[in-house]
Specification:
The chain is α/β, with parallel strands linked by helices and about 675 residues long. Helices cover about 40% and strands about 20% of the residues. Among the domains are: about 45-135, OB fold (Dihydrolipoamide Acetyltransferase, E2P), CATH 2.40.50; about 250-435, P-loop containing nucleotide triphosphate hydrolases (Rossmann fold, 3-Layer(aba) Sandwich), CATH 3.40.50; about 445-600, P-loop containing nucleotide triphosphate hydrolases (Rossmann fold), CATH 3.40.50. A hairpin with a 2-residue loop joins β5 (about 105-115) and β6 (about 120-125). The longest helix has 27 residues, at about 210-235. The structure holds adenosine-5'-diphosphate and magnesium ion (MG).
Length: about 675
């Protein structure tokens, strides 16, 4: 007896595993597995007509095949076509079977890119099939699919062709398509998989082609539908409302040494309103580094607490969690709020006591890292969970903070600004508040690009700044390949700087320090017992030392834009004139040059993020969120803004009026993927 296969043809477990790697779990997925490009194998070109850099197919007979050993081991085959043209073929990777295959006199078709070689024209690693002059040529362009190791194009093509045997019903009614100016689905899909011989490759490859636009739209629509329905489901789940009582919140605002900015005030009102509703809040609070998100988050916690609930304040690292705790515990205690904190570096008994207080409802507000709250005990009455620096956490982790009983409201915070198109697409299940204004009195950070050859000048500057009463950061180069090397570099940098700047107190902080060691260094820096802090990128987020107004970043060309922007945000927090010196090593790659130009010219986080999106695509900006959400394969958020808006509107209408169409559409696009309702 066989179990029902999701494919209409037999699939071995090994094949199924390879297909799964490509996200292909059933026929319908194969239908949507569209080519990256196409090869034109419908024509034969005579060897004498070949031009360098051209991609072409020739029909030729082997004259000679041998293994050469200079300059490296390779198989060279000389072939000749019927018109007497001679072409060299080279294989740098080959098996003994290749040598057997290319017997003199045997006929093949080779297709690939033509190169002007040392001894005339050649092809390196062309595709080839055994074929005689009278073997028929294909009548369609040959699709080239995204594939994975061990799954040949030929095999994949066969599977796709098989899956395409069934009709492909359109999920969108004809009137909607007409209204949106979209092509019909079935013909679009068939055209892309099997373009007829006469199709112009350039036209097909242009993603503005109506067939591609149709697929991009459908993909966006599926995303919008699933996120919108996740949001609807969440809105249907009850939770206890936490209306504003203006007791703790008002007192806290009153006690602040500053006024809230208009943007903070607006964000706070949005959050306060959400908390009063009887379904769980999922709000993302976005604001550039230094925009003052922490105060707003504290207010959210207080609104829960003044309703008799508890709050959790989570940070990505111990340093940050403790910093939040230290900054907030005192002013909150003055209001009668009982704060506690759980940390990996606490003694076990201490931590247990903290958890006990949390479980018994004797602590109102608990600070800690996200990891700790995941492993830890439970809250008695958790009303609000704040997740700082949300981009560091996965979607999955976002969910972990469920408690038995009612579902808490969640406030996520991110200093990585999300461009509008990303917010509209990948974050469509969340509500977003934006703090788009920095507190007054900040001095803008002057950014300098300095070649590493002028490191000595920079040292002089650091020394002067510190001797004048300031403090500085020295950020070590990022070494992605090896954590060990990264650590080594940090220690070396520290040793060198200690020697070069004997009259400064130089400290070192890096990711491998134990949490309490890290904390001790940060506390010393905060207390100005350290002038110059050598750091790996662990200081990336959240650290707040207003007296540190100078930052030097080594090998800035290795860092991403978001990271540079975050780092730079550590300075310019006080009234001192602030500067960020980006040391770079030459020669610069194209991308590194473009990034440094952006960070040099721009200071607005949103604009930087937009440039980042342009330079790199959405993957990096989404951070871990992508792990839970299928990436867009066909739609491009810059190019397809119009489609995104249209998909968003249609998703609303569709869910409200035609849920059956919505269900069918989501099933086609996401049916075999993991469940999306991850909020
Ligand atoms: P981030 O948004 O990066 O988390 P923080 O919340 O750490 O920023 O705030 C940065 C600094 O600005 C803190 O020292 C904080 O006390 C201060 N701050 C916050 N809001 C205001 C305000 N409205 N006016 C003046 N200073 C503020
Ligand atoms: Mg912060």
């Amino acid at each position: 007896m066989k179990t029902a296969s999701p494919f209409s043809f037999p699939v071995s477990p090994a094949l199924a595993a390879k297909l799964a790697k490509l996200g292909l779990a059933r026929d319908a997925d194969l239908v949507l597995h569209l080519p990256l490009r196409w090869e034109d194998e419908t024509r034969i070109t005579l060897i004498r007509d070949l031009l360098p850099a051209q991609t072409a197919q020739v029909q030729a007979t082997v004259r000679d095949a041998k293994v050469a050993y200079r300059p490296r081991r390779m198989l060279t085959v000389t072939v000749e076509d019927a018109a007497g043209g001679v072409l060299g073929i080279r294989f740098l990777h080959f098996y003994p079977s290749h040598l057997k295959l290319f017997q003199p006199g045997e006929s093949f078709r080779f297709s690939g890119e033509v190169r002007g070689g040392f001894l005339g024209l050649e092809m390196v690693h062309p595709r080839f099939v055994k074929a005689d002059d009278d073997t028929p040529l294909p009548t369609q362009l040959t699709p080239v699919y995204p594939t994975t190791a061990g799954l040949s194009q030929a095999a994949l093509r066969k599977l796709v062709t098989h899956a395409l045997a069934a009709p492909i019903p359109d999920t969108l009614p004809a009137e909607w398509r007409a209204e949106l100016g979209l092509a019909e689905l079935e013909s679009s899909i068939r055209l892309l998989h099997q373009p007829p011989q006469a199709s112009a490759l350039a036209e097909l490859e242009s993603r503005h082609h109506p067939a591609w636009r149709r697929l991009a739209f459908d993909e966006l629509l599926a995303q919008q539908l699933s996120l919108a329905s996740a949001r609807r489901q969440r809105n249907a789940r009850p939770t206890l409302p936490l209306p504003p009582r203006q007791r703790l919140t008002a007192a806290f605002i009153h006690a602040l040494p500053f006024e809230l900015t208009a943007a903070q005030e607006r964000a706070w009102q949005e959050i306060s309103r959400d908390l009063a509703q009887s379904h769980p809040m999922r709000r993302l609070l976005q604001g550039d580094v230094g925009s003052g998100k922490t105060v707003v988050a504290a207010l959210a916690c207080l609104q829960a607490i003044e309703n008799g609930f508890q709050a959790a304040f989570m940070a990505p690292t111990e340093i940050l969690a403790e910093q939040h705790y230290r900054k907030l515990a005192q002013p909150l205690a003055a209001l009668g709020v009982r704060c506690t904190w759980v940390s990996g570096s606490q003694r076990k008994a201490e931590r247990q006591a903290a958890w006990q207080a949390i479980a018994a409802g004797e602590a109102d507000l608990a600070f800690g890292t996200h990891a700790l709250f995941q492993e830890g005990g439970s809250f008695q009455r958790l009303g609000v969970a704040v997740v700082d620096e949300q981009h560091r956490f996965g979607v999955g982790q976002r969910l972990a903070l469920m408690q038995k009983g009612t579902e808490p409201h969640q406030l996520m915070m991110s200093a990585t600004p999300i461009p509008r198109t990303l917010a509209m697409s990948f974050f469509a299940d969340l509500d977003v508040s934006v703090i788009d204004e920095l507190p007054p009195g900040r001095t803008p950070v002057v950014t300098k690009l300095v070649s590493a050859a002028r490191r000595d000048d920079v040292l002089v500057r650091v020394r002067e700044a510190c001797l004048a009463g300031g403090q500085a950061y020295w950020v070590c180069p990022l070494i992605e390949e090896s954590e060990k090397l990264q650590l080594q570099t940090a220690q070396d940098t520290w040793a060198v700087l200690t020697e070069q700047l004997p009259d400064l107190r130089v400290g070192l902080v890096h990711g491998r320090l134990k949490p309490d060691e890290k904390q001790a260094v940060m506390a010393a820096f905060q207390a100005h017992e350290i002038d110059l802090l050598v750091a790996t990128t662990v200081i990336e987020v959240g650290v707040d030392v207003p007296n540190a107004a100078l930052m030097v970043i080594e090998h800035a060309e290795r860092m991403g834009l978001a990271q540079l922007h975050q780092l730079r945000g550590r300075v310019g927090r006080g009234s001192r004139e602030s500067a960020c010196v980006l040391l770079f090593e030459t020669p610069l790659s194209e991308l590194a040059r473009a990034r440094l130009k952006v960070i040099f010219e721009l200071s607005d986080g949103f604009e930087i993020a937009r440039q980042d999106l342009l330079l790199r695509g959405p993957g990096e900006l989404l951070g871990h969120r992508q792990s839970g959400l299928p990436m867009l394969r066909f739609a491009d958020l810059e190019r397809d803004v119009d489609l995104l808006e249209a998909a968003r509107n249609l998703a609303q209408r569709c869910l409200a009026q035609h849920p059956e169409i919505a269900a069918r559409h989501v099933e086609r696009w996401l049916g075999s993927r993991q469940s999306l309702s991850a909020t």
